[in-house]
Amino acid sequence: MKIWVDADACPSVIRDILYKAAQRLKIHTIFVANQPIRLPQQAYLSQRQVSQGADVADTYIVDHLQAGDLVITQDLPLAADILALQAYALSPRGELFTQDNLGPRLNMRDFMETLRASGIHGGGPSSLSQSDRRNFANQLDKLLHQLTSAST
């Protein structure tokens, strides 16, 4: 099992949580971005820098992940691709994406894109709160415990 991180949009506080989890549980964690990402010198952390362009990092992740891997992303279309490959997708806010909750989220995303295209601006997501960070850490710990227990 590996953890893949859609790192271009991953908040640094979430990266810090992932660094600690990777080291503690000895899980290879790969940060994929179209720019260099500074990582601590740890055995279980690595980076893949991809070329610039829309969805290049997403495509790299989808092409390299395996069933049972975990991907950290807030990109809903990427999350849909991940689920289709029998892997897990967790948002930086700690929401585990499932087939049940992803459909409505994709519909809302498409609706908001339509509004933006018509000149109505809806604004972006709020910044990460302390509660979001705590929720992410708790969900990550719970999920990694389940996944590592199942593989032993």
Topology:
Layout: E1 3-6, H1 12-25, E2 29-33, E3 45-49, H2 56-64, E4 70-72, H3 76-84, E5 88-90, E6 96-97, H4 99-117, H5 130-150
Helix pairs in contact: 1-5, 3-4
Pfam family, one: DUF188
Family: Belongs to the UPF0178 family.
InterPro entries: UPF0178
Query: What is the share of helical residues?
Result: 40-55%
Number of domains: 1
What structural category arises from helix and sheet content?
A: alpha/beta
Radius of gyration: 15 Å
Element pattern in H and E: EHEEHEHEEHH
Residue fraction in strands? 5-15%
Globular, elongated, flat, extended or rod-shaped: what is the shape? globular
In angstroms, what separates the terminal alpha carbons? 11 Å
Q: Main beta sheet: strand number and arrangement? A: 6 strands, mixed
Stated plainly, the CATH topology is called Rossmann fold
Give the overall pLDDT as a whole number: 90
Instruction: Please give the number of β-strands.
Output: 6
Runs in which pLDDT lies below 50 for 5 or more consecutive residues are: none
Spatial strand arrangement across the major sheet? 3-2-1-4-5-6
Instruction: State the CATH class.
Output: Alpha Beta
Protein name: UPF0178 protein SAMN05421831_1012
Pfam families: DUF188
InterPro entries: UPF0178 (IPR003791)
Family: Belongs to the UPF0178 family.
